[in-house]
Amino acid sequence: MVKVTACNPSALAPAKAFTHALAVEGAQRWVFISGQVALDVTGQVIAPGDLFAQLEATLQNLGHALHAAGATFRDLVKVTIFVVDLDPDDLARIREVRSRYLPQDPPIAITLVGVAQLAFPGLRIEIEGTAAL
């Protein structure tokens, strides 16, 4: 039988119409992380418009969601990254920052998507993830 547990840590802005993380247990344990963005615990956008400050904050929020579900960055197997107004000149720096958080040996599956906008004005990046335990 599969057991699904919603995990919404107090370290993240309150979830509205979604769950920050779902822990799925059965033969294996999977954690599905909803798209994390650069919002503080009050729901305010961190560093509006600043891609790299938001990348750090978003990865930290991803870590909070993983922790709430009993996982770590090492457990990630897939992330999807959405970037507003993606500039190819930013890719190297995105990879450098990302590599400080995400598993590198072996590298995890990553999808990077350029988008026109995200849910709130001022947001530049969103990251969703899947972890296997």
Protein architecture, described:
This protein has 133 residues and is an alpha+beta fold. The chain has one domain: 60s Ribosomal Protein L30, Chain: A. It is 20% helix and 32% strand. The chain is built from two helices and six strands. It has helices at residues 51-68, 91-99, and strands at residues 3-7, 21-25, 29-36, 76-84, 109-115, 125-132. Helix 1 (51-68) runs parallel beside helix 2.
The share of residues in helices is 10-25%
Task: Give the C-level CATH assignment.
Answer: Alpha Beta
Distance between the termini: 17 Å
| CATH homologous group name | RutC-like
Order of helices and strands: EEEHEHEE
Number of helices, counting only DSSP H or I runs of 4 residues or more? 2
Low-confidence stretches: none
Query: What gyration radius follows from the Cα positions, in whole Å?
Result: 14 Å
Q: Enter the CATH topology name.
A: 60s Ribosomal Protein L30, Chain: A
Question: Tell me about the biggest sheet?
Answer: 6 strands, mixed
Number of strands: 6
Sheet/helix structural class:
alpha+beta
**What multimeric state do the chains show?**
single chain
Strand order across the biggest sheet? Answer: 1-2-3-6-4-5
The proportion of residues in beta strands is 25-35%
Q: How many structural domains in the coordinates?
A: 1
Mind telling me which CATH architecture this is? 2-Layer Sandwich
Pfam family, one: Ribonuc_L-PSP
Family: Belongs to the RutC family.
InterPro entries: RutC-like_sf (IPR035959), YjgF/YER057c/UK114 (IPR006175)
GO molecular function, one term: deaminase activity
